[in-house]
Amino acid sequence: MSQPSIILAPSAAARVATIAAKQAKPAILRLAVEGGGCSGFQYRFGLAETVEADDTVVETDGVRLVVDAMSLDLVGGATVDYVESLGGAAFRVTNPNAASGCGCGASFSV
């Protein structure tokens, strides 16, 4: 059985490429899920230096999104986007596995 994949939207890939270039780092965005947040789990983003052995990797426009195996169970099938609005700009996860989420979109429950 193959694990559901995850999608890196072009807007998010472009933002990662810009940030990585400014910091002289590889264009690799790591998405992890950790316990906490107002709904039980929260998303954590960061630039990664390398890809780990158990990571799932998807690529959009030359930018890689990496997700560890444990986090992928909670975000499989999700889309990572970069959204700019009046409230600010942020990476946003549209997660079909989330039963509920908080108003800010930073945490969720399953």
Automatic annotation (TrEMBL):
Pfam families: Fe-S_biosyn
Record-linked InterPro entries: ATAP, ATAP_core_dom, FeS_cluster_insertion_CS, HesB-like_dom_sf
Segments forming domain Core: 6-105
Transmembrane spans: none
Protein name, per record: Iron-sulfur cluster assembly accessory protein
Originating species: Novosphingobium capsulatum
